[in-house]
Design a protein that fits this description.
By secondary structure, this protein is an alpha/beta fold. It contains 10 helices and 8 strands.
């Protein structure tokens, strides 16, 4: 499939009032998986609540999934106006921390027809992170999933962020899943999709979840039902190079497993929610 099948937009293409008018009866949940993000989570929640709930009623549900934080993440999020749930209390038969678990559990805990995920460490968060992701889903027929991309500075230097993206993720996709080579930020934690699609997907349990979802969506809905949106510049906490090794290993193992390569690391995906009896009963 040619890369041109992936539609690309800019967050400026969409405004909150326009999206409120377009969404009709569609409900939108914003979910923020967070662990020890007390420094930034409050401002993110306040921005969403002020701009996209109180001032303009675009977002119907705002949930923070606290993944075992030891700081004030939960308290700061609750004070700012989010519904806070502990990851350990959601689907307790599937324990364990990790980004994949937090995303899967937030899908379990939320109820919106459209689910938006954003990372909780963004220092320059604004409503564009939500309106940009929701925009194509509300205004472009046939779009079921939207991935964000952005400029990522490193220590204030433009174009120097995204080390794992450029050294691991993009080369892997180019070699093993070339249809996804047009995705600018395959590891971006900002994306949105329709629940009816997301519920059918397995979730990789750790750092590999972002790429695994892209690969699984490619097989489930095809590139023509996916889109990406330029969200501007994203400033966040940059990790030391040594801290990126576990993330890189998880990404390598997950992508190789989905390509049919037998790797030493065992990948046990969280099952699609439609296979969980308790969830099926809740959704009936």
């Amino acid at each position: 499939m040619p890369s041109s099948a992936l539609r690309t937009f800019h967050h400026h293409d969409f405004s909150a009032p326009e999206l409120v008018a377009a969404k009709g009866e569609t409900t939108i949940s914003v979910c923020l998986p967070a662990r020890d993000e007390g420094r930034t989570i409050g401002a993110i929640v306040e921005s969403i609540r002020h701009h996209l709930i109180d001032a303009t009623p675009l977002v119907d549900e705002l949930i923070v999934v606290d993944d075992g934080s030891t700081d004030r993440t939960a308290a700061a999020a609750a004070t700012a106006g989010a519904t806070v749930v502990a990851a350990r209390d959601i689907a307790p038969d599937y324990p364990g921390p990790g980004k994949g678990q937090a995303l899967w559990k937030s899908l379990h805990a939320s109820s919106g027809d459209v689910v938006v995920w954003c990372d909780a460490d963004i220092e320059n968060f604004g409503p564009r992170f939500v309106t940009g992701l929701v925009g194509p889903l509300m205004t472009r027929p046939g779009v079921d999933f939207v991935k964000g991309f952005y400029e990522r500075p490193l220590d204030g230097k433009p174009g120097e962020g995204g080390r794992v993206t450029e050294l691991v993720a993009r080369p892997l996709l180019s070699l093993l899943f070339p249809a996804l080579s047009a995705v600018v930020q395959p590891l971006a934690g900002e994306y949105a999709g329709r629940r009816r699609v997301l519920e059918r997907l397995p979730f990789a349990p750790g750092w590999g979840v972002d790429l695994a979802l892209l690969i699984d969506l490619l097989g489930e809905i095809g590139l023509e039902r996916m889109a990406q949106v330029d969200l501007g510049t994203r400033v966040h906490r940059n990790r030391r190079l040594a801290d990126l090794t576990p993330q890189s290993e998880a990404i390598l193992a997950t992508v190789l497993e989905r390509a049919g390569v037998d790797v030493a690391t065992e990948i046990a995906d969280l099952p699609p929610l439609t296979e969980i009896p308790a969830y099926r009963r809740r959704s009936a």
